[in-house]
Amino acid sequence: MKGFFDGVRRHIGNMDAEHLREQYRRLSDEVNSLDALFGTMAQGLIVVDGRGEVSKSNPAARELLGMDPEDALPMLAVPLGKASKREIDVTYPEARRLEIQTMPMGEGTLVCLRDVTAERERTEEELRIGATRAVRDLAAGVAHEIGNPLNALSLNLQLIRRANGDSEEVEECIRQVERLSGIIHGFLQALRPSKPNLVRGSVADPINKCLTTMRPQFEERSVSVTLNLPSALPSVALDPAQMEQVFFNLLKNALEALRDGGSIDISLSSDDNDVITTVRDDGHGMSPEQVAHLFEPYRTSKEHGTGLGLMISARIVRDHGGTISVESEPEKGTAFTIRLPRIERRIRALKG
Predict the structure, then answer these.
(1) DSSP string, 147-178
(2) SS3 state at 102
């Protein structure tokens, strides 16, 4: 269509009335074709203008949401003019999981809705049966080659502690060796996921443990970390070790995205249903294309990355009954948001 307008613009001075009518007819036919395509797409599409109002939507969007897009807009929480990707659960007209992807479009924002219920189930099955088979052999070899040196390191550190007494440096070395063992375990967990051992607790606990472990890395890079913790935070059902793995992955990714002297902001809050944690950095951000493939295995922009970290994190959060979402803009940073159901919400669901 751009080529059409360019051609008309160049030659409009030489066109007579009949020629202009013919060009208008062609334009009208093309617009009608695009409207027909827009209306018949199975993917839900919503165009939100710069004021945050719905200017256009297709029937698929209304069908997927179970309501008019105008009424659903507050629930979708569209980040205007930003690329983002997250998933939500809807219960009407039937229970399903929707992927919501946004991308800037001129002065407005295009919202794409896709039913990923079957895809999520299929992806898990394919990982168990197909791709995981090849990685399992690799993981077994890595675990064997790294496990022996780690055991030797751990043994010698225990001997040093016994001979010289407790010291902060030795204790930190022991903790880091345990961290490496945990990384190996986590890699194997991508292949043989274990169900979370849920206990009543606070989301702040695994976050504080991660911050303690990573403090030397933050200080070395002159990265400032702010933790905004409310005076009262509702309890959630969580596996502390698994959630520590999730937050470690998010903080590690944030650190790698930052320039020296950057900042990370961690904020915790709650609403009637969930405890909400947002990890925000002011790093280089991601393009809409990178956001679109986030949480997929083996899709990473890192030179030596595997893409498994975020995939494992997303699965852990889902196994906790929660959701994880992301918003990002190139050169403006990235924000990951995790919502975990409050204990009271789980009790209401069980009673229902």
Answers:
(1) HHHHHHHHHHHHHHHHHH---HHHHHHHHHHH
(2) strand
Residue 84 identity: S
Contact between residue 345 and residue 274 where contact means Cβ atoms under 8 Å apart: yes
Say if residues 46 and 113 touch (Cβ distance below 8 Å). yes
Give the span between the Cα atoms of 176 and 339, in whole angstroms.
29
Q: For 26-85, write each residue's pLDDT tens digit.
A: 767 676 677 777 778 888 999 999 899 999 999 999 989 988 999 988 888 889 989 999
Write out the E strands in the chain.
44-48, 54-57, 83-90, 96-105, 108-115, 199-201, 224-228, 236-238, 263-270, 274-281, 323-329, 333-341
For residue 101 the two structure tokens come to: 């992807």
> In Å, what is the CA distance from 129 to each residue of 11, 96, 311?
60, 24, 17
Angle at 250 between CA 247 and CA 253, to 5 degrees: 145
Comparing 28-32, 58-62, 223-227, 256-260, which segment has the lowest mean pLDDT?
Answer: 28-32
The residues that bridge with 114 in the sheet, in sequence order, are: 99
* Phi, psi for 7 (deg, rounded to 5): -65, -45
Q: How far is CA 199 from CA 82, 242, 343, in A?
A: 37, 12, 10
Contact 262, 203 (CB under 8 A): no
CA distance 315 to 104: 28
34 burial class (0-12, 13-18, 19+ CB within 10 angstroms)? exposed
Report the alpha-carbon distance of residue 17 to residue 152 in Å, rounded.
88
Q: Residue 267: name the closest of 304, 222, 225 by CA.
A: 225
Place of tokens 């030659």: 11
At 21 the pLDDT is 72
